[in-house]
Amino acid sequence: MRLEITCQDRLGIAEEVLRIISNQQINLRGVEIDLAGVIYLSLPTLPFEALQSLLPAIRHIVGVNDVRTVACMPVEREHHEFLALLATQLTPVLSTDIKGNISIANDALLKLLGVSVDEFIGSAFNHWFKGINLARWLQEDDHAPHSRMLRWHSQEAFADILPIEVPEEEGNTLVGGLVCFKFNQRVTKPSELNQAKTIDFSDIFTVSPSMKHVIRQARHLAKLEAPLLITGETGTGKELLAKACHFVSSRADKPFLVLNCAALPDSVAETELFGYVKGAYSNDPDSGKKGLFELANGGTVLLDEIGEMSATLQVKLLRLLQDGTFRRIGGEEVVKVNVRIMCTTQKNLPALCQQGVFREDLFYRLNVLSLALPPLRVRKVDIVPMAEHFLKRFTLSLGEKLVLSKACCNLIQQYPWPGNVRQLENAIYRAASMAEDQEISPEDLHLPSYASGYGYFDHAFEGTLEEATKRFESELLTRLYPAYPSSRLLAKKLGVSHTAIAKKLKEYGIGKHRSST
User: Fold this and answer.
1) Rounded to two decimals, what is the model's pTM?
2) Which end of the chain is less packed: N or C, by CB atoms within 10 Å?
């Protein structure tokens, strides 16, 4: 049984309670005191006569307001709430103690491994998984969160490794590790490759003439075999458009695989794309792995945020584009594949080429066919219909009927939407989830104040006016130089002397002045 004792803020009450329990020779199983000063006791089941003696004795302590039985201790409730929450998670998760022994695992992970709770809990993490010596990592001084490729049996997946720390007055104390598997970043089985949802251009909602023009272009380019480069700001729907191009092409019955170049470390991205041969890694001598290019043979590989690709990978990708061949990591055998490469980016690739960050020869090979998605702020005719489309979809799942108020429509029509369609969709979803009335108001959207072209008003600005001016000058000249590739042409465009422009190009390392490193 459990008792809850509410009392006034007075020293010594807990000590008096424990003395009464000791005098009555009751076995105390646990005690908790919360921040409000409420005392919780865990006791064995007591007969009625014992309770008749215990409860009045506690109530007579000066400062005790009430004593009552409760269903559980706070720590028990939190523990079972945590287990219930963990059981609903589809993402495989586990935690270990400070020695690297598994202490908790959810059902998703147990099902993935095909093991029982009794077999798994208490065993060493390194007994099941390869790719990191977790016990050794827990003993090191640096416990910064990071990501690793973990392998078990014939499977592998990307996973986040995080420390579990208990805050104390003099700093945090490490008590274990948390491992979260992330299967959405890769595909582990060839049989899963064609399970991406089939879509076509009719799934892209728009009433905007500019966006309809892009879709008309995409219908033609989708039928071709050359690389396709899709540019646009974050949240404009670049991956959705690429997927539609794949599923209306002659490759529609073949795999469509995606790699986010910005989300993975270089070594992991290279492994994902090109694979490795048996024995390439000393900690995994018995198996090799096919990369995405092999797994997608006959289909399409989308390289998301290609502007983030490392220099090493750029060289290997260039060779693949030239003759369709590559070598696995650690291998000598040349592998030939037939894949269509699609790329997306929100960066200015010509400017990156001028800075020496992105290879010009690779850019010209990727930029054979291109599509530019307009931002939502220049296709304002789409904003309200799209918001109503999202709201209708969300309200069907909520079982309610919600509408946008006129003031809300006016706000979203004028808002610049720096996060574009993704931001609009998320804002409508949040408003639909939290709205207290049937009509959604501007306050329900919780949109941060934003000045078009300058950023969020509440974003902390760092640096001086001179530094901000130099950043703007550098960005402007970097963007213009590819179209006006000399100081005289650029000076004429900007209406200043070519001597001044020449000094600026040298100062910012643009064009022939860029660093060769």
Assistant:
1) 0.54
2) C
